[in-house]
Amino acid sequence: QVQLVESGGGLVQAGGSLRLSCAASGRPFSNYVLGWFRQPPGKEREFVATITRSGYVTHYADSVKGRFTISRDNAKSTVYLQMNTLEPEDTAVYYCAAESSTPITQDPNEYDYWGQGIQVTVSS
Predict the structure, then answer these.
(1) What CA–CA distance (Å, rounded) separates 54 from 2?
(2) Phi and psi dihedrals of 90, rounded to 5?
(3) What distance in Å separates the CA atoms of residue 119 and residue 55, rounded to the nearest whole number?
(4) 92 contact partners, CB below 8 Å, separation of at least 6
(5) Cβ count within 10 A of residue 14
(6) Residues 6+ apart with CB under 8 A from 9
(7) Are 39 and 116 within 8 A, CB to CB?
(8) pLDDT of 8-49, one tens digit each?
(9) What is the pLDDT of residue 27?
(10) Are 25 and 16 in contact (CB under 8 A)?
(11) How far apart are CA 76 and CA 74, in angstroms?
């Protein structure tokens, strides 16, 4: 079992920045591919970013590429999502997730463990 807890969300004006953190406990953190997903109001959950176990490879949704950066600190068992130049369309509940079955994946069905989610609201 892996427990994931997100922090760092909140309300920010358009053009601003936030950094989300997701702290993990349980099994060795470095065993897991980590991802960030989000669910905008009234919409389905969507992929945001993912990072390999080593942290050397990352993938991003086109909508956040160039604005968001995913990173991880295996020593601290934490994954981060730096979000810059935020837009109202980024308003959503953000979730971190972990999986151990693939090298890297954007498919939420591959992820075994999920955090409880954290609200990010971007005002115009």
Answers:
(1) 18
(2) -85, -5
(3) 25
(4) 38, 39, 40, 41, 120
(5) 13
(6) 18, 20, 94, 118, 119, 120
(7) no
(8) 999 999 999 999 999 999 888 999 999 999 999 999 999 999
(9) 82
(10) no
(11) 5
What the block records as the tokens of 9 is 């969300």
d(CA 60, CA 50): 7
Q: Which runs of E-coded beta strand occur in 10-90? A: 10-13, 18-26, 33-39, 46-51, 58-60, 68-73, 78-83
What pLDDT, on a 0 to 100 scale, did the predictor assign at position 49?
Answer: 98
Q: Which pLDDT tens digit goes with each residue over 40-95?
A: 999 999 999 999 999 999 999 999 999 999 999 999 999 999 999 999 999 999 99
Distance of CA 116 to the CA centre of its chain: 12
d(CA 90, CA 38): 9
Amino acid at 11: L
Token pair 């990072």 in the structure block, residue: 51
